[in-house]
Amino acid sequence: MKTFAWKYISDQIYKEINEGRYLEGQKLPTENEYSLRFGVNRHTIRRALNELIRKSYIYSRKGSGFYVSEKKTIHFINQRPRFTKSLIASGDTPLTKIIRLEYIKPNEEEAKNLKIKKEEMVIFLEGIGYRNNTPICIYKKIFPSNRIPGLMASFKKNSSISKALFDSGIKDYIRSYSIISSKLTNHVEAFLLKCNQGEPLICTKNLNVNNKKEPIEFGYTLFMGSRVEIYIENN
Amino acid sequence: MKTFAWKYISDQIYKEINEGRYLEGQKLPTENEYSLRFGVNRHTIRRALNELIRKSYIYSRKGSGFYVSEKKTIHFINQRPRFTKSLIASGDTPLTKIIRLEYIKPNEEEAKNLKIKKEEMVIFLEGIGYRNNTPICIYKKIFPSNRIPGLMASFKKNSSISKALFDSGIKDYIRSYSIISSKLTNHVEAFLLKCNQGEPLICTKNLNVNNKKEPIEFGYTLFMGSRVEIYIENN
DNA sequence: CCAAATAACTAGACAACTAGACAAATTATA
DNA sequence: TATAATTTGTCTAGTTGTCTAGTTATTTGG
Known about the structure:
2 copies of one chain form a homodimer. By secondary structure, chain A is of the alpha+beta class. Chain A is built from 8 helices and 10 strands. The N and C termini of chain A lie far apart (about 50 Å). Chain A binds a DNA duplex (30 and 30 nucleotides) through helix 3.
């Protein structure tokens, strides 16, 4: 049995990362530099680095370089889900950027979950969640606007989603259920998450209800597998 | 299929313009602002914006910014249509490029409109109309050559269509009727008009007659919806 | 053990993207 | 009005991503 160059190099670089030679988020040497150092072709270096990407120890940015991955964000799924708070608690700077906000017609599943008629227009909200300026998820949320008067205006005024809900009278809400699945990023998701096409995603689908148990939000979230892990709390 | 950042961004900005978020002539966000918003380098933004300039949805002013292009208003006159003159009058540089000129057999509608036999050969002329070096329309015209002696030779000599008609004895003509409809560009039209496939077109079909009320031209024109608006005068 | 097939590796070209510098034109400010 | 700041235009250079093609090394199967 023979150890191949790419495997040796991959292990070697990983060892150096593990030794703490490079901090989280720090840039690694370029392909070219590694190529000179190990005396192999650039493509062999790429293979070694791609192996580390596959294991999500590092990630790459086109035209820029390879970087050491940061620790995964833990996303808690429990009764009272709050993206921002869960991140603040873990000492990270959260941010969520809305990229789409409009009225649409719900599909069958959405209408059924929200307990409204298929013809009733709903608020569609799409955004990207960040941690330390790195995108970690794409979320899509459907709100029954008829049940929450003034919500659209509130979204346009507020940057925080839960604050917008609060302003519209939703003082509290709890999660009714969550479904978790997985898939690979398509080209659009890859762009939005600034990753390569074909990376694994953790997909959640969930329903939030108010204290009268009326559905107020049906949402989908795509978490980047390499940057997030989901923690399910039972209490 | 793979989406590049510049393509995604270009499409996104175009969508926002098309939604009416920015009015004609209005300034777009700066390269820097877009760069922060999309999280890419300024040069990638430039590439996206240059794509929109190429399709003349926007234009730029050095040291100032990027602006949404203004539509050209075409006065669709019932009486004396003249592409060249109407553009000169509005202070633009006119140009029309003939891309096809030959004898063909007319179809039923054309023969009927021109009041000739189906077997009688006619002159088929196809061209592209420009404003400021940007294509704004594709036109196809059918002329009953038997009724206008020497017209083909005249077309080959002259660059202006109305001048060619004038030289062939058509000193004056008026529009008999026009029909306006709409459709989306196919890939050939998109290529000729240097725009995306699926852009809306304003389609006109019309008949011109001489002072003896004999039909002398049956024509189709496809105006690019995003670059042109048609003004119809009733008097 | 040999031949064929497969995987590893080299080599090069080109595109997409990042990065920074500086010029030229415009706009805001003192 | 003069100056500073902003913004687009144009460079050069470097890095990753994706191809294609060809060579060498290893494994596989008879």
